[in-house]
Amino acid sequence: MDYSKTLRNNNKIYSRTSSQRQGQQYSSDFSLRFVFTGNERYDIGRRHLSIYPDSFLILNRGTQYSTDTDSSIPVQSFTINFDQQFLEDFKEYWAFTDNRLLNKNGSKTKQYQEFDETIYPFNGDMMYNVYHLKQYLDNGMHDELLINEYLHHCLINYFSIYNEEILKKAEKLNFLNQNTKIEILRRLNLAKEYLYSNYNQNITLEGLAEHSCLSVNHLLRTFKQAFSLTPHQFLTQLRLKRAQLLLRSTTYPINEVVNLIGFECPSSFIRLFKTHYKVTPLKYRQSA
Amino acid sequence: MKLKYIPVFAEDVDAQIDFYTQKLGFNVISNIGFIEGEESMVLQANNLDVAFVMAGSNRDSVYKSCIILNTEDCLKDYHLYKTAGVFFYAAPRYLPAGLAAEFLDPGGNRLILLEERSYTEI
Question: What ipTM goes with this model?
Answer without folding.
Answer: 0.85
